[in-house]
Specification:
- By secondary structure, the chain is of the alpha/beta class.
- The protein has one domain (about 1-215): Luciferase-like domain (TIM Barrel).
- Helix content is about 45%, strand content about 20%.
- It is built from ten helices and eleven strands.
- Helix 1 links the parallel strand 1 and strand 2 (about 35-40).
- The longest helix has 18 residues, at about 190-210.
- The chain is globular and about 60 Å long.
């Protein structure tokens, strides 16, 4: 079982430089804790600071070393040539394996702000992914579809093959992830029972499409406390407010032993990677959780 981190990109701060500093500090802490991978997310048209994936990851890679890194791109919201260029450059900066996480994106306000018709996003996703992969291979691409491209190409191309993990939760989307992706990223809102059902669907889809994934990952929003009581007490306000609309059972809250046991159960189901995200918005608490993940990893391994 590998444990990575998706560093939170949204911060309610008065000085926008503070949020950027927090992300760099979390990347530095994740390296010190021995986490296996480092990711950032993707969101647009936001009312509060949300630090964009490509430039932030480029900065964070200076703290990271040679372990796996990557970023999420909601492909219908991006020109595929731009995504291929950005990831080609990031893969050239990264000292280790580079992963592009990708998904459709279903937020209506976000899509409207980016000029994207939600009804077209499924075909846009597949067309974009095919185009990006061709550009990564160094091909020249002309396209008359959702995007009109004439002899598009990129340089630098990624120095090594880029893994593509597709985020998916609905059965049809899970099938798409098995058909098109190198790996799958399960929805963070799933409780453990939902995670078990979803991975069964994914494994069946991989069998149908004769695919062997490089990663079967799930994101978990996490707080690792100094004790079970402290963890429960500190996270009570987040749970009471209905954190991100998740069921409390989807959150991983506890001491080192409790968190390690939850991760181990996911490994028994067949997940190869747990990608954590801090629940807390308090930077000191977040850094302490990342530090304690070192002991979680020791128990899971």
């Amino acid at each position: 079982m590998k444990v990575g981190i998706s560093v939170t990109s949204a911060y309610a701060v008065d000085d926008v430089r503070v949020g950027a500093r927090y992300m760099v500090e979390r990347a530095r802490a994740a390296r010190a804790a021995g986490l296996d991978s480092l990711f950032v997310g993707d969101h647009h048209n936001t009312p509060r600071p949300y630090y964009q994936n490509s430039p932030m990851l480029g900065r964070m890679l200076a703290e990271w070393g040679d372990r796996t890194s990557g970023a999420l791109y909601l492909l219908p919201l991006w020109n595929p040539v731009l995504v291929a260029e950005q990831t080609g450059t990031l893969a050239s900066i990264a000292q280790g394996r580079f992963v592009m996480q990708c998904a459709l994106g279903g937020d209506a306000r976000q899509s409207a702000g980016m000029g994207v018709d939600l009804k077209a996003r499924r075909t846009m996703f597949e067309q974009s992914l095919a185009t990006i992969r061709a550009l990564w291979r160094g091909e020249t691409v002309s396209l008359d579809g959702h995007w009109r491209l004439e002899e598009a190409r990129i340089s630098p191309v990624p120095p090594e093959p880029v893994d593509v993990w597709i985020g998916a939760s609905a059965p049809v989307a899970i099938d798409r992830a098995a058909r098109l992706g190198d790996g799958w990223l399960a929805d963070p809102s799933l409780d453990d029972a939902g995670a078990a059902r979803a991975i069964t669907l994914y494994q069946e889809a991989c069998d149908r499409h004769r695919r062997r994934p490089t990663a079967v990952a799930i994101r978990r929003d996490v707080y690792v406390g100094s004790s079970k009581a402290e963890a429960k007490r500190t996270m009570a306000p987040y749970v009471t407010r209905g954190y991100r609309g998740f069921a409390p059972e989807a959150l991983v809250i506890g001491d080192v032993g409790e968190v390690a046991a939850r991760f181990a159960r996911l490994g028994e189901l067949g997940y190869t990677d747990v990608i954590v995200r801090n629940i807390t918005s308090d930077q000191k608490q977040a850094l302490k959780t990342i530090d304690r993940l070192h002991r979680v990893i020791e128990r899971v391994e």
